[in-house]
Amino acid sequence: MTEVRVAFVDAYVLRPSHSGVGVEVLVLRRGPKGRSPGSWETVHGHIESGETPVQAARRELREETGLEPARLYNVSRVESFYRHRTDEIVLIPVFACLMDGADGVRTSAEHDRAEWLPPSQAVARFSWPRERRALEDVLSILGSGEAGLLEDVLRVS
Fold this sequence. Notes:
Layout: E1 3-6, E2 8-16, E3 23-30, E4 40-41, E5 43-46, H1 53-65, E6 71-83, E7 88-98, E8 111-117, H2 119-125, H3 129-142, H4 151-154
Parallel strand pairs: 1-7, 2-7
Antiparallel strand pairs: 2-3, 2-5, 3-4, 3-8, 6-7
Helix pairs in contact: 2-3
């Protein structure tokens, strides 16, 4: 029987643009070893045993980029996909990490490149359609760098 489980998190990383208008989005390119080499993605990873999705989002951000968010948001969105090799449907809570500047991105062994891009370029760069769709929601909420009327409900820290 096919199982459904919360197994991964996605964390979209935003910083104020250098122009002072809007935000830039961090995109990561997968390295030559591992799955989908050369594909571009957001911060993405497993939820470890005993970990909450919020804890996993913070840990994955730190592991994949060396960054700590100034503010962390629950985007109120859950992605899903079917893993045919394990016959399971995986749910992925989506988070947004707002940085105050964050010029010093340190990539992990999973990635060989990181770039800050304007949102339209980030959308075009993401390899996975679910990431392109989710980024639209992230930007509709946080594209100005603030969550506005949703701040009290969506801000985690």
